[in-house]
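Run log, item B.
One chain of 253 residues. Sequence copied directly from the ordering sheet:
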Amino acid sequence: MRPKLSVIVPAHNEEAFIGKCLDSLMKQTLNNKFFEVIVVDNASDDKTSKVVKKYPVKLVYEGKKSVIWARQKGVEESQGEIIVSADADTYYPPDWLKTIKANFERNPKLICLVGWIYYSNTPFIFNYFNALNQEFNLLIQKYTKKFPVAYAANMAFKKTALEEFGGYPKHLIELGDQQYLLYKFFRLGEVKIDPKVYCKTSARKLDSVWKNILLYNGWHRIIGYIVNGLMRKEVIGPAPAIRTITPSRKAGS
């Protein structure tokens, strides 16, 4: 029996986080016959693969250091009808996959499902504004049937829909891919947000706020997205990997 869902987890030097992520995926309430987990080792030079091999998941390798290339590699190795995009530094609650599966079963016209994310170990004020931003995203959807923000750590879509426009945009950089997919999916059919599909991710990219805004979001993601999009090839490469914060030992914290 082929799985209905394929969870794709790209991982570059994630030995500190990947175990917690996979622990959460192994504790899903959805029967494991309905899903597979594919971890894509994205040119890691640490013990990521060694950690992953302890779990009953599929491990594949992508030599080009790019989360977009890694996600596409995972799709190519997948068997499921629904691709579930996840991140290695993220924890998923037990009913996560069951809720995703139920959404697609209830609505055959659904092309893509976007969930919410929460950050671990961040100040209350940051969490408040993050929640406000997601509520605003939901409000926009209510009145326009569209919305501007999606999270690669928590979205699912039909594999056939992705294949219809040729897969992930390998010429774009991180974050550019999810906005690209969102734009394409809106043109193909129904896309919705479900706040019940949520996850908790690390706050390591928020460790240096100004560096994150100016270097990662400003140069690599905004300028990189525009330049690479216009040139249709990778001119500005991906942002440097941030691997300085270790996860909390308490699951889900």
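Observations after the first pass:
- The first helix runs from residue 18 to 26.
- The two ends are 35 Å apart (CA to CA).
Flagged for discussion on Thursday.
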